Every structure is written in C-alpha cells, then in structure tokens.
Amino acid sequence: MTVNGASQAVEEAAPAAGDAVGRVLGTQAASPLSFWVGLEPGKVVQLDDVVVTRRDVPGYGPVLVAGVVTTVEARHEGAAYDSDVFLIADGALPAAVVEVAEVRVTRVEPEVFVPPLPGAKVHLAGSDDREQALYFDVMDRRIPIGMGRDGRPMYANFDFLDGTRGAHVSISGVSGVATKTSFATFLLYSIFNSGVLDAESANTKALIFSVKGEDLLFLDHDNLRLDEGARAIYARLGLPARPFGSVHVFAPPRPGDANGVPHVSARTQGVSSFYWTLVEFCEEELLRFVFADADDERAGYSLLVGQVAARLKAWAEPVGDGGAVMVQGTAARTFADLVELLSDQLQDEGTRQQWTGAQTPLGTVNAFLRRLRSAVRPLSPIVRGDLPFYRNHTVSTSDAQVSIVDLHNLPERAQRFVVGVVLRGEFHRKESSGTARPLLFVVLDELNKYAPREGDSPIKEILLDVAERGRSLGVILIGAQQTASEVERRIVSNSAVRVAGRLDPAEAARSEYGWLPPAVRERATIAKPGTMFVAQPEIPVPLAVAFPFPAWATRPAEAAAPAAEKASGDPFQGLPGVEEDIPPF
C-alpha cells in the first residue's frame, strides 16, 4: 500500500512508535526551541518524525518537550581528512559512524520553557504524545489533510478555515507538478465528509473556477483507478472513498450557437450554460469587468469606464424578450452592436460630452474604444442579446453543493470577466443574507493573474474584500498560484492556512515563503507530486503530508457513470478528454 509514493516498506523499516532512538547531545547546545539527538546504533529517524523527551523540573514536575525532526546527518567520528574514508572502510583507521538529528520543538507541556538535559533519552512519539506534539489533542474540530510520513493521519484545525479563528487557504507550487488543484479538491472533500460541519453540511457550498480542460467536471463520478489500497487510506483518515455527491457544472454557450448549448465535449448531464444578456450587462454596470486587467486601472481611461457604465445603466431599455437593448434610439442585439453604438456616440463631438460628463481628450476616448473593441471577440459568446432573457442562464450555488464554472474554452479576457462578475454576485449575496452561515468556499486557481501584486483592477478589489471581510461573511477563499511572490500581499497574509507543493528554487528563496524553515524550503524544491507542506497557526512547523489518490474522477477517461446514469442506461461515460497530471500511487 502506498500514499503518494511513501511506501509501506519505508514505514515498516522505521522504529516502532514509542521506541527510544537516542539521547540529547551534549556537544551541541540545547534550547527550549531546538536540540540535537545522537542516535543509538541500529536506530533510524527520518525527516518529519515526531520525537519526545522529558525532564523533571523542580517545582513543576515532569515536563514534556516534543518536536519534529528537521535535519538528519551522518558522519565518521575520528576522521580528520576527506581521504580518511577509504582508510576507515579498509579497517586501517579506527572511526565510528555517528548519526545525529536536529529537532525543532513544537510543544512544551506544561509550558515551562527549559531545555532538555544532555543525555536525556529521546523516544519516537507514541499516539498520545504525537497528538500533544502536533496539537491535535486541542483541535475540537479537525479535518484530515493527508497522511504523515509515519503512516498516520495529519489534521488541520477547522477553526482556522471556517472563520472562527481565521480563514482562507493559500496553495503555491510549480504548475503540473505541485498538484495544487488536486489538493484543493481533497481539502473540500475532507471538509464536507469529515463531520465537522454537522447539520450545516447540506447547505455549505463550494464554487470552483475550472481553467484546465474538463478535468474538474467529473467530481461526482467514481474514479475507475481507485484500488483497495487507496480505499484503505481513506478508511484510516476516517473518510468515505466516494465521489462528491452533488455537483452542477456551468459552461459558456458554444460560439455562434443560437440555442445556448453548453460548450463542453465529455460531459452530457448536469451541465448548464451561463451568459449575461445585454440588458443585464447595462443594468448591472458590468462594463468595468471588461477592463479587468491591472493595466486598465493605470490607464487614463479608467474614469471614463465608470462614466460610460453609469450612462448605459440609465439609458438602456430592454427590447423584446431576447435580452437586446435600445440606447439613445439605437438597438443593439449583440455585444458587437453595443460596442459599435458606443463607438459612434463617443466619436461624435455632439454626443461625446453626454457620455463622458466632462471634456475628455480624444486620445483618451480612442484608447478606451481600442480596448473595448478588442473585447468583442472574447466576450461575444457570453454577453448575448439573441438568447431568451427569461431562460435560467446565471451561475448559481443554490442548485448543488459544488458548483463548477468551466472557463477553459474562454479566452483569458473572458475568463477575467466571468470570475469578476460571478465573485461580485456571490459576495453581494452573502452580504445581503446578513449571516455567515452556511459557508461558501471559493476555489480559484492562478490567483496571481486575478490579484497581482502591482496595479488595481475590479477583480482584485473583490478578492481583497473576500480576504479581509470574507471571514465575517462566511466566504472562504482557497487560492492557488504558481508564485505567491506575485500575489497581492494582503491576500496571502490573510490566509490562515498556507500550503506549498513542489517549488521552483528561485521562488522558494523569496520572502513570501518565510513560514517554511530553510530545510523545508530545500525539500520543497524536490518534493514529489502529492506531497504538500501545510502550515497552520497552532503548529510551529509545517506538516509534510501526502494526500490520498482521488476517489472521484480527475479526467474524463477515469470517470465511471454516476448511479443515476447507470440506472437509466446512459451511454455517455468514460469519453476521452483533456488529461491532467495526477500524482502516481
């Protein structure tokens, strides 16, 4: 049985829990924060092992000092020169092989901060000591986040996820290797199925923006590759090995399709198309999300965007039932028509000031129009005046526990528009509800694209609002990015839980990863897919976890038909599609 490459053979080779593995070194200074252990002959510890030692302190009694192994070294004791290794190997020079390990202290119980004494015995943590060392014993509501290298479950405190004491998750790592999206979906699955939500589970929602093919469209399908070994891991984590139970997929209409058929190829059921009519575009002042790049906010026409949007809201009138509008006596039935209408109005000296509200240089107007015209092609499929206005066409989280917004068929400009408008709508809905419960989890990949460190944009404003006020409103952001150094600092700093997978060496050296100890930073540059380093406020060191193989399909070829489709004899299952690299097991 394996967990993301951590083999059972390695687990069995480690000393049994509770075994004495060595003694506190006297040649290295021990402190209440860290100490070194000399390993006894034949004993082995590895990185991430949890060890404990005890000291009797006058007036306090026994004090437990627990920590995590962060460094393991082996050397010849008695060798003076590098070439001595050959003499020692031949038996010509006496020397002893010595192994030592550095331990970073995670907990002192009771809190009497004294160093462990040299020569004190050090043990691998048994079940109770491990619970204390990693603060699992004080987590009243905990969710499993994967398996540790000792083959036992690791947990996160849900109080730091649901807004009770903190909120939001930041996941960083190299694209295609760090399995950021896979971990985000497992985290959601654990939240929904671990029991921490109790009666709120049915009403708690998740909104996932999918930008990488159709891989996330099958979360409610069994994974055909799930074997008994993986099922056993779910059992050890206290989770059922099954797909998500309630999923609704939203996809844009096919370009040029007059019926609004969703633009997906592999999935045929539980998919709805989403778009905005021209009436909604004008009434809700969505023009500002057409200019959603940070560069747009720095441009001179940013003020003009708000003025034109306000005029559209005031002057646009519905025409018929197809979502078309009439503005200043001119009808617009497509997004291209609306852009052409604005172009004519703003280039005419007689009508320009009515739209701008003041004298606006022609150069600024032309820059605005050039940017607006470039949006016609990407936005025409989702801003429509030719589809029935009364048809249900909005992205909603009320229909299912997990709502997936498929963006992979849209150009980047349109993706920004969709993310901004949908997030604004859901955030305003939560504001108007007046209560933080039930929770809404938002999973957004490529966060550095939507909330870059430099510049401002409408999407960045919303994401900052979510990061800073979402905790009180019950909106929890699970953001993923390749480079945390390029994401707005306030968003990252407001994330109570931080996760790193495989990191680029140059990125790992940035200050944004100061929460990773130096040794862990180095390890993150060679981490295998599926290995994540999770930091949470209660635990002084990041936990190395390996999350289990997904029980839900992560690509079309893995998807078994859901029970409802099997009962109806639906033939559409297991169709080929875009594949994503998933950690091997």
From TrEMBL:
Residue ranges, annotated region (Disordered): 558-585
Gene Ontology molecular-function annotations: ATP binding
Top-rank taxon, per record: Bacteria
Keywords recorded for this protein, A-Z: ATP-binding, Nucleotide-binding
InterPro entries per record: P-loop_NTPase, T4SS_component
Gene3D superfamilies: P-loop containing nucleotide triphosphate hydrolases (3.40.50.300)
Protein name per UniProt: ATP-binding protein
Source organism: Nonomuraea deserti
